[in-house]
Amino acid sequence: MKKTFIALVTCVIALSCSKKEVTDFVSKNDEEIKSYLADNNLTAEKSNTGLYYIINEPGIGAQPTFSSDVTVAYKGYFTNGNVFDQSNSEGISFNLQQVISGWTEGITYFKEGGSGMLLIPAHLGYGNNYYNGIPGGSVLIFEINLISVN
């Protein structure tokens, strides 16, 4: 009986030590976005998924769907203002199924010629994982200009 108890305790300790701690960034990111908006005197809409978006210019051309090919000029940065990625003014072309879900959803709120911002919580970006210089759990902000729906 003593050996069984020791084996059980050892197993429980091994399992609890081997579990990777996962942080739930949903509420943390939501507070960070709200704070960023207040600090910068911005007003944004919030979708059911938790994406915040600001439409500065809605555009007048075609409106993309979740599976459209688009060309977008953008600048991506963190809430502290540090830029992590940026296109040139001609933008880049891609299919909306090939990008983070914050873009897949957010770009569809604009028409060709539209511009604005997407404030993307981690669960719609790269999640809790480090990706290409972007720390896990990061809020991503993108200034976007939808050049065309291809």
From TrEMBL:
This is Peptidyl-prolyl cis-trans isomerase. PROSITE patterns: FKBP_PPIASE, PROKAR_LIPOPROTEIN. Keywords: Isomerase, Rotamase. Pfam families: FKBP_C. Belongs to the FKBP-type PPIase family. Residues 67-150 form the PPIase FKBP-type domain. It comes from Snuella lapsa. PANTHER family: PEPTIDYLPROLYL ISOMERASE. It catalyses: [protein]-peptidylproline (omega=180) = [protein]-peptidylproline (omega=0).
